[in-house]
Amino acid sequence: MASMRTKILAVCAALVAVTVVVLAVLALTGGDDEDHPASDATSPPAATTKGPKRIGPAPRTVPAVRDWQATRGPGWKPAEDSRVVADPDGPLADEARLLARELDLDYSEGPAEVSDVELRHTPDADIPREGYILSSKGGQVRITGSSDAGVFYGTRTLLQSVRDRGGMADGVVRDQPDRKQRGFMLDIARKYYSVEWIKDRIREMGDLKLNQLQLHLSDDQAFRVESDSHPEVVSDPHLSKKQVREIVRLAKSRHITVIPEIDSPGHLGAVLEAHPDLRLRDRSGQPVPGAVDIADPKAARIIDELLNEYADLFPGEYWHLGGDEYAALTFEDPETEFPGLARAARERHGADAGVQDLATSWLNDRAEVVREHGRTPQVWNDGMHADGTVRPSEPRQVTYWTGKEIGAREPEEYLDRGWDLINMNDEYLYYVLGEPNEFTYPTGRRIYEEWTPAVLRGTDPVPAGKAGPERVLGGRFAVWGDLPEAQTQEQVAEGIRLPLSATAQKLWDPRKPELSWSEFSALAGRVD
Predict the structure, then answer these.
(1) CATH code, domain carrying 166
(2) DSSP 299
(3) Phi and psi angles of residue 54, each rounded to the nearest 5 degrees, phi first
(4) Is residue 43 over pLDDT 70?
(5) Same domain? 273 vs 169
(6) Which residues form the active site (predicted)?
(7) Which long-range contacts (CB under 8 A, 24 or more apart) does 456-460 make?
């Protein structure tokens, strides 16, 4: 009897041990949930590699993928014989070589085999331009897109999955951004940033699937890009044209458009230091800081010459013209305070025109200059004035940043009048060095938990019917250098890391995220 009892106990112990092993395997692979088969023309062919038939975990990335269908299989991990495969003469060769370097794999022109990553460009596929399909099956990964940008974003998903968990579970990702414009704005006028620092941000942006870098090139403090037409306005230190080309080239490789901004007719202090005769003066003859005399044709000529000079240097689709905070319009009675502007307004635009109309006309003229180069102009919302004799010209896009300016208007008014907006809400998206004027450094958590592209002003969203991707085109997180010595470059980089990640998440998918903030911030630390 004792011998029989001993045998029974031994059998029970063995069963317990097997159960523990099975549970441990399931915990590592995400559990044996219900199967969700996903057949797709982009899936790699079945391979003979044997492996456990179980469902693995969904990829965790920043921003999160929008759709994941798991299938049973061993998943994919980079191995010694893994390669990144793409047509060397096709549009994905650069993306393939980049991913190969990042994963420490070989690049190959194929054909793709088991353990490889294959990149496919299928222009006729029913996939949005920045969308992609990533399929992991039979020990192979295939990333397909209708454009090189979409495939690039698929490589970011795979790269982050490897950084997070060492590989990719079997299944299919179908992913695309909610907003077309997803960006970061950097004030390099007030605070100089090294070329390498800017390049590091571009690499960071690429991994976050952001696609725009706005560079605020000039302000009252400095003008930061080499100029042949007006070298007298350039400050030291500054970016050479060669360095700008390096920045633009790296950005292009990450599918990021660089948007230059020469702000006018305000914020021109650096230009006016070299051309004091163009300063705006009030009725007593006192110069107004940073403001140019928009009645003087020489002022327009200088700005236009700079815009024309830089057209080839910045070949992207957009050009930001500024237009904000023109000092003349902050006075209660601009016509009385600036009689020269009032007189020019009447002469050019009729007896009922005022200084506001002259300012609108100024920005219209600059917009026409960049349109002649095939660019779409963008302006700050406080450069768009209500009513008046002269109306803002079209097409243009409005970057909405504030509701605090004189004559402030709700974002809905712009939308109701047909203007497309880019969200740069200073309540959430403004990182102002030194925190002057009641600004505080934004937190990633607040952006992640509260902000969406619909929250254009303050903390309340505009109605859902007005906030869709076709009207609110996207958003940008901005770093301003008001007190440039308040933080070092390194402190800025660390301070914006999580806010930029949160912004990328909400522009890619504005819905409530599945991960808690603590889970998201921990993930961001693993995959960057």
Answers:
(1) 3.30.379.10
(2) H
(3) -145, 165
(4) no
(5) no
(6) 325 (proton donor)
(7) 456/400, 456/411, 456/421, 456/423, 456/425, 457/400, 457/402, 457/403, 457/410, 457/411, 457/425, 457/427, 458/403, 458/425, 458/427, 459/427
Query: Does 361 lie in the same domain as 246?
Result: yes
Closest CA to 363 of 381, 350, 337, 346: 381
With CA atoms as reference, report the closest residue to 265 among 340, 199, 361: 361
One domain for residues 203 and 161: no
Q: Flag whether 396 is in a domain.
A: yes
Q: What is the mean pLDDT of residues 271-291?
A: 97
Mean pLDDT in residue range 388-407: 91
Domain assignment present for 345: yes
- Residue 44 is assigned to a structural domain of this protein: no
Q: Work out the number of other CB atoms within 10 angstroms of the CB of residue 511.
A: 10
Q: Which domain holds residue 245?
A: 181-515
Is 509 inside any structural domain? yes
What is residue 150's three-state secondary structure?
helix
Q: What is the CATH number of the domain that holds 306?
A: 3.20.20.80
Last residue within a domain, chosen from 148, 175, 202: 175
53: pLDDT strictly greater than 90: no
Say whether pTM exceeds 0.85: yes
pLDDT tens-digit profile of 308-346? 999 999 999 999 999 999 999 999 999 999 999 999 999
- pLDDT above 70: residue 73: yes
According to DSSP, the β-strands at 181-187 and 257-264 are unpaired
Is residue 102 annotated as part of the catalytic site, yes or no? no
pLDDT of residue 54 exceeding 90, the answer is: no
**Backbone phi and psi for residue 452, each to the nearest 5 degrees, phi listed first:** -140, 170
- Helix or strand or coil: residue 225? strand
Looking at the structure, tell me whether residues 214 and 104 fall in a common domain: no
Same domain, 185 and 165: no
Quick one: average pLDDT of 367-372?
Answer: 98
| 56: confidence class by pLDDT, cuts 50, 70, 90 | confident
**Pairing relation of β-strands 140-145 and 181-187?**
unpaired
Task: Look up residue 55 and give its DSSP letter.
Answer: B
- Most distant CA atoms of the chain, gap in Å: 116
Same domain, yes or no: 88 and 237:
no
Residue 63: helix, strand or coil by DSSP?
Answer: coil
Whether residues 273 and 309 fall in one domain? yes
Q: Which of 325, 347, 427, 450 is catalytic?
A: 325
How far from each other are the two terminal CA atoms of the chain, in whole angstroms?
Answer: 63
Tally Cβ neighbours within 10 Å of residue 129. 13
- Report phi then psi at 363, rounded to 5: -70, -35
**Dist CA 300 CA 322 (whole Å):** 14
pLDDT of residue 405: 75
- Computed from CA positions of residues 243, 246, 252, 253, in that sequence, does the dihedral angle turn out positive or negative? negative
Instruction: Please enumerate in sequence order all residues whose Cβ is within 8 A of that of 452, keeping only pairs 6 or more positions apart, or say none.
Output: 461, 467, 506, 510
The confidence score (pLDDT) of residue 407 equals 72
When pLDDT is cut at 50, 70 and 90, the band that residue 8 belongs to is very low
Residues 96, 130 within the same domain? yes
Q: How many CB atoms lie within 10 A of CB 339?
A: 13
Give the pLDDT confidence of 424-434 residue by residue, as tens digits: 999 999 999 99
